[in-house]
Write a structure and sequence with these properties.
- The structure is a single chain.
- The protein has about 130 residues and is an all-alpha fold.
- The chain is about 55% helix and about 0% strand.
Length: about 130
Amino acid sequence: MEGIYAFSVGLLTACGVFLTLRGRSFSVVVGLTLLSYAVNLFLFASGRLKLNAAAVLGRSEQYSDPLPQALVLTAIVIGFAMTAFVVILAMRARADLGNDHVDGQVPKPKTPILQKGNTSHKTGGGQ
């Protein structure tokens, strides 16, 4: 179970970093959200993963540490508020700039490379 849990945290982190490095605002927001989910799962796992363990002392023989659960709950609330703020900020930037690129500039399209021996060009001539 721990292996699958660690793999899912790693996968969320990798996807979050990949999306954060993209050039569009929406991808950056989704990437930061995935990174916050990965951190939340990591914090939750720091309290040791146990099955059938109560979070309250005295309710069962085994108990789980309530501190990581409180940290994750706080992080979820703060993460939701920050995601809402960043989405509004991205919508405002889209309205002001006319695009949703992070740097505000639309990348220029790449010109096709002619292969050696292929010199035919399409022209707008009338044939």
